[in-house]
Amino acid sequence: MSDERSEGGEPDDLLRALEAALFAAEAPMSVAELTTVIGAEDVAQALPRLAALYAGRGIELVERGGRWHFQTAADLAHILRRTREEPRKLSRAGIETLAIIAYHEPVSRAEIEAIRGVQISKGTLDVLLEAGWIRPAGRREAPGRPLIYATTAGFLSHFGLADRRDLPGIADLKAAGLLDPVDLAMEQLIMEKPDEDTGQEG
């Protein structure tokens, strides 16, 4: 790229190396992983520079959950949707379960069920695990030491979030018209805290 020049006019080798490593990567990479692959120490400072070079282009360099990758520019995503196979849509239970985990993580299956008010099937969690959107995050220090779940960097990347602080609030969802009268019940899911429903600490 013509913009990747050092002060002396020569190509910036570090930016070129980062570009090559990220382009060839099968998954988003952390600063530590890129540092190991490239063998340079100032990767963290160079990544924003490389991202700036791609700003406004057809592809862009973004950080999601502490990991960096190239993606199609958001305003051009519709072009790829025409040819990309549509993934299987999540069920209502899957959407609600994912929302609870995202807003309350880490949470156990019992805590998810307490918030939803109904039991969830093992298949619902399996679908989210297979999609790479949630992960086991250890065990709750409570009787039975239940497994707890949290979202992944893949979840952030798929939904275009830099981190969980970018999750929309109820006001944002209403303004976007994403909540109908039935879905307004989700407001209760987001506002309630799991430990208040289960009586568990933590």
Automatic annotation (TrEMBL):
**Statement: the UniProt record of this protein carries the keyword Cell division:** yes
Q: Which UniProt keywords apply?
A: Cell cycle, Cell division, Chromosome partition, Cytoplasm
Keyword Cell cycle in annotation: yes
InterPro entries from the xrefs? Answer: ScpB_csome_segregation (IPR005234), WH-like_DNA-bd_sf (IPR036388), WH_DNA-bd_sf (IPR036390)
> Which biological process, per GO, is one annotated for this protein?
chromosome separation
> Sorted alphabetically, which SUPFAM superfamilies does this protein's record hold?
Winged helix' DNA-binding domain
What name does UniProt use for this protein?
Answer: SMC-Scp complex subunit ScpB
